[in-house]
Fold this protein.
Amino acid sequence: MTDCIFCNLNHQKRLLENDHFFAIYDHFPVSPGHTLVISKRHAGDFFDLSGEEMTALHDIVHQVKEMLDREFNPAGFNLGMNCGAVAGQSVFHFHLHVIPRFARYHLNENRKKRGLREYLRDII
């Protein structure tokens, strides 16, 4: 689609890719290393992916994790995707967030745990 932000991304921003997906750093990261895995085909969301794409997604997510482990040494990860506007999806082209988590970023100023639920609340 010509007006889709993900269809028109500069290829030089790609960190990793396979036949069906590519990975870039998120422009509005929740934590250092926050990465998006984006489908090369304009698929609306996770439920539009083919079986072959699902396998390729699994593979590239593991590659992203290995890259983030080497570069940032996180203590954990959140994987997130929104499917549909009411679920918080704002770009209607499949993308999966790989969010590294670090002990030093785990607590916010109120000393409460900040997890994916709070992140999703912030973006919808």
